[in-house]
Amino acid sequence: MKLTPLKADLHIHTQEDPVDRVLYTARELILMAAVQGFEVLSITNHNLRTFDRDLFCFARDQGILLIPGMEIAIQNRHVLILNPPENKAFTDFSSLADLKRPDCLVIAPHPFFPALHSINGFMRPYFKMFDALEFSHFYLPYLNFNRRALEFSRESGLPLLGTSDAHFLEQLGTTYSLIHAPKDMESVFSAIRQGKIELVTKPLSPLQMGRILGRFWAWKLLAKKKQVKGPRRY
Fold first, then answer.
1. Exposed, middle or buried: residue 49 (CB in 10 Å: 0-12, 13-18, 19+)?
2. What distance lies between CA 100 and its chain's CA centroid?
3. Structural domain boundaries of the chain?
């Protein structure tokens, strides 16, 4: 019997994120994703595992398989770990070798974007530590930093996984993956490793990108002002 591919987004942030200011909660995200027909999600907040039994069951009731996830920093570069082991520190890229097992998945997010936290030069020497490369939603028809990820995917054999890296609900559904697998975590991971993925994506319009950038940098500026101001002294 042929499987119907699972609509999946495995890189999303929510209000529980301790680093970025996101307005919607994990439950609100799940409800919106269910409306859009998503069947597999991972909430990947920075350095925080936003996952418990209640949230898993809430997602399941909406028809969604919720996979634990986290976006961590290794040598100041971001790495996505799905089903991360609890209470384990990763000091360098070599330490990711411990996650080469069926119940974990390691993804390189926005790997070649011109950003401080993108992997960039660490990608080539450590590509064997990763199971997949992200194809990010954040691009225009004439400006697409995913092109290097496409080239590196062909060179290395690492599959491409489409995600939204959503911080705003309008980003959800802009880029995602169709994964040909039964609806359980290890089967989804196995299918990704084997490249049984269809990438569904379209470039943002300049208006969309401008709106997302404007809101994102407004938050960053506000956070910076709060840090500089600090507590008042009398």
1. middle
2. 19
3. 6-229
Residue 147 tokens read as 């092109």
The β-bridge partners of 179 are 6, 197
% helix, strand, coil for the chain, step of 5: 35, 25, 45
Residue-by-residue DSSP string for 52-101: -HHHHHHHHHTT-EEEEEEEEEETTEEEEEESPPTT----SGGGGGGG-S
| pLDDT per residue rounded down to tens, the chain (234 residues) | 577 999 999 999 999 999 998 999 999 999 999 999 999 999 999 999 999 999 999 999 999 999 999 999 999 999 999 999 988 889 899 999 999 999 999 999 999 999 999 999 999 999 999 999 999 999 999 999 999 999 999 999 999 999 999 999 999 999 999 999 999 999 999 999 999 999 999 999 999 999 998 988 787 776 665 554 544 432
Q: What is the DSSP letter of 16?
A: T
99-108 burial string, b = 16+ CB within 10 Å, else e?
A: beeeebbbbb
The tokens 């990438």 sit on which residue? 199
The three-state secondary structure class of 108 is: strand
Which CATH number is associated with domain 6-229? Answer: 3.20.20.140
